[in-house]
Amino acid sequence: MRGPRSAFFPIVCTLFVSCPEVNHGTGMAADSTVRFTLLHRTCKLVVLLCFLHISVTFFFYVRSLDIRFAFVQNQQSHNVSTQANRVVDLDFTSETEPKEGETKKAEPAELVPKEETGDESQAPEDEKKKAEEPEKKLEKCPETSPLLVGPLRIEFNTPVNLDQIKQMNPNVQPGGRFRPGDCVALAKVAIIIPFRRRDEHLKFWLFYLHPILQRQQLDYGVYVINQDGEAVFNRAKLLNVGYREALKDYDYECFVFSDVDLIPMDDRNIYRCFSQPRHLSVSMDKFGFRLPYNQYFGGVSSMSKEQYLKINGFPNNYWGWGGEDDDIFNRLSSRGMSISRPSGDVGKCRMIRHDRDKQNDPNPQRFDRIAHTRDTMHKDGINSLSYNVVKTERLDLFTKITVDVGKP
C-alpha cells in the first residue's frame, strides 16, 4: 500500500508546473490580469483540494492500522478466555443404582493407563517421583467470574436444534453436567425445570443457559422433570421430585427452580444461592420489566438445601395454573426468611410467548389454599411427596426424568 505522500506527490508537482508565472510588467493588458487572477484562484483551490484529499487518505490509513491492532487484541483475548474456560474430562457417573423402570445411558469406559511390562525397578527415577507427587489442588473460583459479559441480546426468531447446541458447548458432559476445569466452583447447583410438551422452548433454554452457566463458573447439572400422562399439571410437585432425584446424582448444595420459557437477559444474574432465598426473574418483559407485586416469587428462584428443608419443600396439592409460588412465599415468610433479588436491570428476563398448556387451567382452589399455608405446610411438602419414576434419560445436554405424579 502506497502512503499518502507517494500517492499525491505527482499531483502537487503537476499543479505547480501548470500555474503560470507572475509577470509584474507594467505593460500587461487588462485581459491578461483577469486571466492571471482567475488562474491564481484556481491554483489555490486545487492545492486546497489536494491537501484535503491527502488529509482524508491519511486519516483512513491510520484508522486501518487501529482496526488491525484491535483485531489482533481481540484474537488474543479470545484465546486467553478459551484457555481459561477449558475443562478437564470429568466423571459425572451416578453411583446410585437405577430404579425399576429407569433406563440409563451407557457410560463410556474409563480410560486407564496401561501398565508397563517388566520389573518396576527398571522405571526411570523421575517417573517414580512424579507418581509420588500429589496433584496440585485448584484454587476456588473468584466471587465474580471474569468471564461475564453483562447484558445479552435474546431472540427467539431463529429455530435451534440440539446438535447445534451440543457443538457450541463441547465441555458439557452427559446429563447436562459441567464444572470449571481451572478452579473450584463456589456452588454446586441443580437446575430443576418442570416440563411437559415444551420441546421447542427447552431448546431455546439450553441454547442460551448453558453458555451463561459456564461463564458463571458453576458446578451444575440440568434436570428436566417431565410429567407423564394427561392429568392436570402440577408444577410445585415436579419441583419437589427434581430436588429429590438430583440429590441421588450428586451432593448439590443449591437448587434453582426455573420455568422452561424464561431466559435471563444478563449473565450477571447468577444462578446460585444466597444467604436468603433468591428471586431471579425480577423484571420480565411480560410485566413490562417490573415486579407485578412485592410478594411475587414465580418464574425463576433459588434456595439452598437448608432453606428448602426449612419450609418442608413445596406444596404438592396445587393442581393447575397458579397459587404455588404465593404458597412458597408464605412458607418462607412464616420461617422468618426474606426474599433477595438482583437489581431490576440485572434481573431482566424474556419470556417465550405461547398459549396456555392444555390440562393447566387456573386452579379454582388456589386462593383458599394460599390462605391456609401456615396450617398445611407441616404435612404437605417434601415429607409427603409420592411419585413413580417412569424413565430416566441421561442425554447430552440435560437429564430428563419422566414421572407419574398421580392425579388431583
The largest pleated sheet is described as:
8 strands, mixed
Average pLDDT, rounded to a whole number, is 81
Order of helix and strand elements from N to C terminus = HHHHEEHEHEEEEEHHEHHEE
Q: Give the overall shape, derived from the CA principal axes.
A: elongated
| Percent strand | 5-15%
CATH topology of the largest domain: Spore Coat Polysaccharide Biosynthesis Protein SpsA, Chain A
The CATH architecture of the largest domain comes to: Alpha-Beta Complex
Rg over CA atoms = 34 Å
Class by SSE composition: alpha/beta
Structure overview:
The protein is of the alpha/beta class. The protein folds into two domains: 61 residues; 260 residues, Spore Coat Polysaccharide Biosynthesis Protein SpsA, Chain A. The protein is built from ten helices and eleven strands. A hairpin with a 4-residue loop joins β10 and β11. The longest helix has 55 residues. The chain is elongated and about 115 Å long.
Set down the secondary structure blueprint.
Layout: H1 4-18, H2 30-84, H3 125-132, H4 162-168, E1 177-178, E2 188-195, H5 199-215, E3 219-227, H6 235-247, E4 254-258, E5 262-264, E6 278-279, E7 283-284, E8 300-304, H7 305-310, H8 324-334, E9 348-351, H9 366-371, H10 373-376, E10 388-394, E11 399-404
Parallel strand pairs: 2-3, 2-4, 3-11, 7-9
Antiparallel strand pairs: 1-3, 4-8, 5-9, 6-8, 10-11
